[in-house]
Amino acid sequence: MTTKLKDIQNSADLRGIDIQKVGVKDVEIPLIIQRKNESNQTVYAKARMSVSLPKHYKGTHMSRFMEVLNEWREKNLLGVDIEGCLKDIMNRLDANSAELEFSFKYFLNKTAPISKNICTMSYDCSFEGEIDKNGKYTFILGAKVPVTTLCPCSKEISDFGAHNQRAIIKIKVSYDNDKMIWLEDLIALAEQCCSAQVYPLLKREDEKFVTEQAYQNPKFVEDVLRDVVTRLRNHPDVNWFKVECEAFESIHNHSAWAFQQEGVL
Amino acid sequence: MTTKLKDIQNSADLRGIDIQKVGVKDVEIPLIIQRKNESNQTVYAKARMSVSLPKHYKGTHMSRFMEVLNEWREKNLLGVDIEGCLKDIMNRLDANSAELEFSFKYFLNKTAPISKNICTMSYDCSFEGEIDKNGKYTFILGAKVPVTTLCPCSKEISDFGAHNQRAIIKIKVSYDNDKMIWLEDLIALAEQCCSAQVYPLLKREDEKFVTEQAYQNPKFVEDVLRDVVTRLRNHPDVNWFKVECEAFESIHNHSAWAFQQEGVL
Amino acid sequence: MTTKLKDIQNSADLRGIDIQKVGVKDVEIPLIIQRKNESNQTVYAKARMSVSLPKHYKGTHMSRFMEVLNEWREKNLLGVDIEGCLKDIMNRLDANSAELEFSFKYFLNKTAPISKNICTMSYDCSFEGEIDKNGKYTFILGAKVPVTTLCPCSKEISDFGAHNQRAIIKIKVSYDNDKMIWLEDLIALAEQCCSAQVYPLLKREDEKFVTEQAYQNPKFVEDVLRDVVTRLRNHPDVNWFKVECEAFESIHNHSAWAFQQEGVL
Amino acid sequence: MTTKLKDIQNSADLRGIDIQKVGVKDVEIPLIIQRKNESNQTVYAKARMSVSLPKHYKGTHMSRFMEVLNEWREKNLLGVDIEGCLKDIMNRLDANSAELEFSFKYFLNKTAPISKNICTMSYDCSFEGEIDKNGKYTFILGAKVPVTTLCPCSKEISDFGAHNQRAIIKIKVSYDNDKMIWLEDLIALAEQCCSAQVYPLLKREDEKFVTEQAYQNPKFVEDVLRDVVTRLRNHPDVNWFKVECEAFESIHNHSAWAFQQEGVL
After folding, report:
1. Range(s) for CATH 3.10.270.10 in chain D?
2. pLDDT for residue D78
3. Chain B closest CA to D236's CA: distance in Å?
4. Which chain D residues are within 8 Å of B119, Cβ to Cβ?
């Protein structure tokens, strides 16, 4: 049987092309995530993981990605551990660069502003890591934060009311490897930059509060973006960021959208 | 070669199971749609088409669905023609029942309320047809109509402002085969049942108008649903309907939702 | 403040329409699920929950759905508990019917056929429950199971090889309230009805096994459907089922699809 | 009314942040696309369009994007015209850079290899354009091409058969503004780099052909990627490209994936 099961992937390739990234995508996997000031949370991630492949190899060994993912899912993950996971796959596949992305829903308790009722709310978050061929490790933390925006133009020109809508703030940040930014803090940063926050559970007194707060605090997507950019520029640990704000306009069937990317990865 | 290419599908099956529906799904296909008072519109549909399969056959002939779809895409489609398309596939596959569904974006010109600017806007629409084993033909017309809803509770309890958001009204109707309901009329019916309509292009004077209109016209999803249900109950040609209203709440990260189904198919 | 915060939802409605379903949709929520022969698993569900609303009420109280969901997410859920959750929301909203749906990814360890390597694999699953206005409780268990299908026609007519592809078997079943069907068993039932099972982690000796197994075991979507239907008809506890098999054809850009629904809910 | 309808967007902003991109997203719009050697085709695009916004302006004027899109949808679009569209929005919004993206389904007739039956098939395509603040125009053409891949390892190690699956080749290319690459040619380039092509309509003799062709032509995602990269490196007009190949593995519930990006934009 061993003569039969030839390792085709290890056979020579003559096209002379070093492949930048090859691996697995859309792998569903549970992960244990470190939380700030709380016990860990198991999340369910969609994962992509890849390595570089030198020109003389025909193929990579896909099953080893699954072995590494299956082992690392038992560990508590944040920036430092992503690096360990990448080094592991590089060792097992004899690769000189690797990258991965985990996207997952992260749950936090959120307290209503007046009633103080607590309910759980989910945020789409991500961990991305890369070790390049010079051995440099980069980690990117991502969060998508739903908020309310209320249109300043609509408020100004209308005799009463103002259109408002759910919007989403998408932030990705990179920071020094000896620092740590928590998802909890990144989400809180975004939630300070809107007309009003979004909550899972609001009683009537809360609804009155957020309605009036949004009306007194109108913001375009441009305003939200600038508020987030200001905070990220002033953050001592952030080296690079990408921010998007998209408002699912209540008066249109399309979105208003703003985008900014700054810093060096 | 003819001896080689055995018709496996026609071979006998011994499990004794009449299959209710078998066919193709997620077929992308252009269709020509009749418009009310206008020239036809080519749309791009996602199609499903199936037939019943008697227990003594192992399989249906999938390529014939594609032949029928490829021929019928050249014809002008509405209820009557869906029936022809179904009869065609029943004949070619010697089946005693068949059903299909076409889902597509349909574009209409929409005029802003004050500036009278005209711009195109898309609606997710569908045609569904079935011929059952007794030969009875049923046609279902579907449209999803984006609108604005403004919350009556939020308006009532707040000193100023009121949360509002994009919502979607989903309507499916069935009517007598000798009658005709146009997509244009079904969409207009839905657009009469909201706090304010949604437009592709609004200038400042239009934005003032829709903002104030929504504020003066607050509606829960329950209100929108009841308004649509009232109109459909009173429609002389509608035999059956299903209505959903879903509001993408601006103060939450989830939707408010209402549902009603009445009549006989 | 109490005079201010009027309960608009409780105000009278004059349209005379009893609403069948009104509630919340696309709520993201963690749930604790009972597993067969194992400790519980926390999953992340997308939830819909609704009640009926009598014609004399203008609106339901949406925040109470979130309160109920937030409380019940701490309990171990399966059929019996869904009923409790429905009764709870009916009590709090004074409704005479209610329904809910939880959709979630469920993770099981899967063992490779030869190497016996174990890796985790996810399945899209669902719990649906309804208490109708006569007090009758119905529970529906759902699972979507990825498998391989290899085309019998392609194998028969070709001198070598046969096209094969990933397919998905979608099963929903309802059973007597004093019985219990585990997701583990429903998934295993589906995995017995394909050309070969799908695995998260396969070493070379496993890949040889599944390749040859699929080739020796060709199945149309019709075959898969009939195999599943046979097992469900013979299952002593199943009162009703709905089965779909969809094959993402490797030689086409569309799917082959088969569907069957039997029994009484 | 003119005193009332103040132009809030034109008011001053004090945060000192030049916004890189602000505009509209998820606009559904019909477009007229030039085809190679054929009459034009109307497609339905999902559009994003944005401009830069200097720090001293509070907001952009979103309605002007819709005006420009609504006018340009009547024109025949390819690279040259995207530039005109971008210049138009820059003029109307007094912006010094702009970018847009149109994503749409593009339909081509595809001829079965033996029966020569012709049927329509759709491809997800895109036009992206940007004029940067130095006035440099860049155009990127994109196509996603479904194909079949048959696993070389599975074929080698198995006594019969080989797993195969639908895969998708995603290509984006940029080329000199005085050159022209047609979608038809980009799609054809991709379809030369697979185990077998995917067709909308195959009769039995065609199915035999593609089954045997795939078996005799096994390819990993790495092979497909290298074949595409070789062709793009040798293409006289391509300045920059990005290629992905993703195979929806028939033996797994995840994808194999390869990626390459080369050249200068």
Report:
1. 18-112+120-135, 144-265
2. 56
3. 33
4. 66-67, 70
Q: What confidence tier does A165 reach under pLDDT thresholds 50, 70, 90?
A: very high
**Helix, coil or strand: residue B234:** helix
Residue A210 near residue B251 (C-beta atoms within 8 A): yes
Burial A46-65 (b: 16+ CB within 10 A, else e): bbbbbbbbeeebbbbbbbbb
Topology adopted by domain D144-265: Urate Oxidase (3.10.270)
Phi-psi region of D86 (alpha: psi -120 to 50; beta: other; left: phi over 0): alpha
Q: At what angle do helices A221-234 and A183-191 cross, to 10 degrees?
A: 140
Tally Cβ neighbours within 10 Å of residue B178.
Answer: 8
Q: What is the DSSP string of B35-72?
A: ETTEEEEEEEEEEEEEEEE-TTBS---HHHHHHHHHHH
The alpha-carbon radius of gyration of chain A (Å, integer) is: 22
CA distance A249 to chain D (A): 10
Q: Are D143 and D96 in contact (CB under 8 A)?
A: no
Contact C167, C246 (CB under 8 A): yes
Length of chain C: 265
Would you call D38 exposed, middle or buried from its count of C-beta atoms within 10 A (0-12, 13-18, 19+)? exposed
- Check if A12 contacts B (Cβ < 8 Å): no
β-pair partners for C51: C22, C98
pLDDT in tens, C84-117: 999 999 999 999 999 999 999 999 999 999 999 9
Which option is the CATH number for D18-112+120-135: 3.10.270.10, 3.40.50.920, 2.40.10.340, 3.90.190.20?
Answer: 3.10.270.10
Distance CA(A53)–CA(C27), nearest Å, equals 42
List Cα–Cα distances, D2 to B85, B203, C78, C216, in angstroms. Answer: 57, 13, 62, 78
CA D256 to chain centre: 21
Q: Is A114 on the interface with C (CB under 8 A)?
A: no
What are the residues facing C170 on neighbouring strands? C144, C244
Q: Do the Cβ atoms of C198 and D251 come within 8 Å?
A: yes
Predicted confidence (pLDDT) at residue C33 exceeds the cutoff of 70: yes
Q: Say which residue the tokens 């496996």 belong to.
A: B8
Give Cβ neighbours of residue C140 (< 8 Å, ≥ 6 apart).
Answer: C126, C127, C128, C129, C172, C173, C174, C240, C265
Give per-residue pLDDT as tens, B97-117. Answer: 999 999 999 999 999 999 999
Tokens 């929504």, residue located? B214
The Cα-based distances of D176 to C148, D78, D136, D140 in angstroms read 45, 13, 12, 10
- Chain B: closest CA distance from residue A94 (Å): 41
* Closest C-alpha to D245, from D256, D234, D235, D254: D256
Which residues in chain C have their CB less than 8 angstroms from residue B25's CB?
246, 254-257
Which of C199, C211, C252 shows the shortest C-beta gap to D158? C211
Whether residue C196 has pLDDT greater than 70: yes
DSSP label at residue D202: -
Interface A–D counts its CB contacts (< 8 A) at: 146
Whether the per-residue pLDDT at D79 is higher than 90: the answer is: no
